[in-house]
Design brief:
With about 280 residues, this protein is α+β, with helices and mostly antiparallel strands. It has two domains: about 5-120, Pseudouridine synthase I, catalytic domain, N-terminal subdomain (Alpha-Beta Plaits, 2-Layer Sandwich); about 135-275, Alpha-Beta Plaits (2-Layer Sandwich). It has five helices and twelve strands. The protein has helices at about 50-65, 100-110, 165-170, 225-240, 250-255; strands at about 5, 10-15, 25-35, 70, 80-90, 115-120, 135-140, 155, 175-180, 200-210, 215-220, 270-275. Strands 3, 4, 5, 6, 7, 8, 9, 10, 11 and 12 form a ten-stranded mixed beta sheet that branches. The protein has a two-stranded antiparallel ribbon with strand order 1-2. Helix 1 crosses helix 2 (about 100-110). It is globular, with a radius of gyration of 20 Å.
């Protein structure tokens, strides 16, 4: 009997015995999922390690009885959390029941993965390419004393931060820029042109939540690899007085990755919301 490894190294799947694709009429499904990324090696399915997408795919194949090609709105890194992640896939029409599917997935994947909503979508809906905006939140605990209740979702920074300077540092981010200084450039096959790192940031701001909790929220048409964590790392450097807020525009324009050496840890980051209405802004 053919078996393949799932994203849990201690489990096996019989998914290779499922039909390679849904048989008969299909329905395009859209689901909103939340997850605690602490126990996962990122979102993208990767046989042999536990990932969010791999766990969802294996659960979907088990429930639906056919192989599933999963698309997500944002491929979050290892340790990054999600609240408004969106996925899309096809299901056999006669096997699809939104409520039953949601209950089954939560029974298999919960509590570290929660399926918040399942709906039938338009046939051409794609969680990645139909998205027009994505919003990330990053939480910093700025307190001398750690807080064990937020240790898995906030970056503990004990040194006092200048919140006013960090707010000022947000302004240069707004608009369309080449964010090469903040992004890991993707690998490309020999001869292929380099991928564009131009993104349009629609909003960026810091909010003081009280009790030492600071939240950075940023909305853009799309994000490149490690972009938000790099931005937060620079912002915290501004708050510490290591970088002036007035230097941020120059750093963006430089395109120099070495100008942003501090990468904020992944556990403070959360993919908060994905929007599918309104105009598209570039890639």
């Amino acid at each position: 009997m053919s078996r393949r490894r799932t994203t849990d190294p201690d489990q096996y799947s019989l998914a290779d015995n499922y039909p390679a694709a849904p048989e008969g009429p299909v329905v395009r499904v859209r689901a909103t999922v939340a997850y605690d990324g602490s126990e996962f090696r990122g979102f993208a399915p990767n046989d042999g390690v536990r990932t969010v997408g791999g766990s969802l795919r294996d659960a979907l194949e088990r429930v639906l009885g056919h192989r599933v090609e999963l698309t997500c709105a944002g491929r979050t890194d290892s340790g990054v959390h999600g609240w408004g992640q969106v996925i899309s896939f096809d299901a056999t029409a006669d096997r699809f029941d939104a409520e039953q599917l949601s209950e089954a997935l939560n029974g298999i994947c919960g509590p570290t993965i929660a399926v918040r909503e399942v709906v039938a979508a338009e046939p051409d809906f794609d969680a990645r390419f139909s998205a027009t905006r994505r919003t990330y939140r990053y939480t910093v605990l700025n307190s001398v004393v750690p807080n064990p209740f937020v240790v898995s979702t906030a970056w503990h920074v004990a040194q006092p931060l200048d919140g006013s300077a960090m707010v000022l540092a947000c302004d240069p981010l707004i608009g369309e820029h080449d964010f090469a200084a903040f992004c890991r450039r993707p690998k490309r096959p020999d001869g292929d042109p380099e991928a564009s790192l131009v993104r349009r940031v629609l909003d960026a701001r810091w909010d003081d939540l009280g009790d030492g909790l600071l939240r950075f929220e940023i909305t853009a048409n799309a994000f490149c690899h490690q972009m938000v964590r790099s931005i937060v790392g620079l912002m915290v450097a501004v708050g510490r007085g290591k970088v002036r807020a007035g230097e941020v525009a120059e750093i963006i324009g430089s395109g120099d990755r070495s100008r942003v050496p501090d990468l904020a840890p992944p556990h403070g980051l959360c993919l908060w919301r994905v929007d599918f209405d309104g105009p598209r802004y570039g890639p």
